[in-house]
Amino acid sequence: MTYIDFIGYTASFLIMIAFLPQAYQVWKTKSVEDVSLLTYTILMFGSTSWTTYGLLKDDWPIIITNVTLFVVQGSIIVCKLKYGKKTSH
Amino acid sequence: MTYIDFIGYTASFLIMIAFLPQAYQVWKTKSVEDVSLLTYTILMFGSTSWTTYGLLKDDWPIIITNVTLFVVQGSIIVCKLKYGKKTSH
After folding, report:
1. Taking CB atoms and an 8 Å limit, are B33 and A34 in contact across chains?
2. CA–CA separation, A80 and B57 (whole Å)
3. Mean pLDDT along residues B60-81
4. Shortest CA distance to A70 belongs to which of A6, A23, A11?
5. Structural domain boundaries of chain B?
6. In the A/B pair of chains, how many CB contacts fall below 8 A?
7. H helices present in B30-59, as ranges
8. What is the pLDDT of residue B88?
């Protein structure tokens, strides 16, 4: 592994774990009013596109990061749709 | 531009615009309670690492995306710190 790969995997790891606190918070508090549904919807389209790009360039930090992101961001969307119905938002 | 580059730039564009609705929402509503400060802090470290990785690999979709993300995510953190003080969170 080169040092460039190491930076790539560090970057992947940071982005992969980044949405876990947000996912935990909306799951725990069931409060999703301030979370933007549009942001997470676009993010999921983005994760899908980045995964495709990574596959075509055989770039594993990109692939691993974006498959994980798709799952975590998806769980935030599920919480938003589930708990958001309790209010008028 | 190859079709792989095109997918990369599409992915970049989606991720770049993704946080704009969230930034607009917290700026407009001044309500930031449900937004995770830890998530956006980690995202900014991630953007910095990805930018470094992109520079070292001369990968412009990665560079452009992550410099933009740094700015937009930074603005969400500013709103969180500014408006979050109004409550006990």
Report:
1. yes
2. 37
3. 92
4. A23
5. 3-84
6. 100
7. 37-57
8. 44
**Tokens at B40, concatenated:** 């956006």
Give the domain B3-84 fold. Monooxygenase (1.20.1280)
- 8 A C-beta contact, residue B10 and residue A27: no
Of A19, A31, A42, the CB nearest to B34: A31
Which residues, in sequence order, are CB contacts of A39 under 8 Å at separation 6+?
B18, B19, B20, B21, B22
Percent of chain B predicted with pLDDT > 70: 94
Token couple for B30: 């001044």
Residue A55: CB atoms within 10 A of its CB come to 15
Query: What is the least distance, in Å, from the CA of B21 to any CA of chain A?
Result: 6
pLDDT of residue B56: 95
B84 shares contact with chain A (CB less than 8 Å): no
- Taking the Cβ of residue B49 and every Cβ of chain A, the question of whether any pair is shorter than 8 Å is answered with yes
Say what the pTM is.
0.85
Give the integer Cα–Cα distance in Å for A65 and A50. Answer: 9
Q: How far apart are CA A72 and CA A58, in angstroms?
A: 23
Name the phi and psi angles at B81, rounded to 5.
Answer: -70, -35
